[in-house]
Structure prediction request, 183 residues.
Amino acid sequence: MRHGKKDNHLGRTASHRKAMLSNMASSLILHKRIETTLAKAKELRKFVEPLLTRAKEDTTHNRRIAFSYLNDKESTKELFGIVSDKIASRPGGYTRIIKLGNRLGDAAETALIELVDFNDALLLANADKPAKTRRSRRGGKKEGAVEAAPVKKEDHPIVAETEAPAEEEAPKTEETPGKTEKE
Prediction:
């Protein structure tokens, strides 16, 4: 049984899976977006996000660890050069997965995985929008607001008519089981 084992093995041996994820991560870093199956994209996200976090701090140790995962000198240079500059202020969530639908040949779910800070069309669309201000959930008094006068029951005849006085309730009768009162 595979209780609590979250990794998708993708139908491959461990060495094949490691090599495939390494190649996909290198392609993602070099090309900024790749199209693949949804299952591979989800596994690639778990593989590449820790590398992107390490790239924020450019040390020899972090470069060696990244190179051991990627096995590609060019993608390691790109990761610690261009990519790390763009993601420096982001606290996490460096990748985005967009579902594309099913592939014609085998009906596999396909997805586009991309680096968030490199989607120029989306960045330009967000630049046009004004920045949202943070608002608290508590409603405080605003300056210049006029406070409404308290409403009395007597002022509204509909409310006064529909409410029955509490004193005019019908008296309760004691009932014995099996017998009913006839009027």
User: Anything to note?
Assistant: Residues 14-31 form the longest helix (18 residues). The mean pLDDT is 84. The two ends are 71 Å apart (CA to CA). The first strand starts at residue 33 and ends at 37.
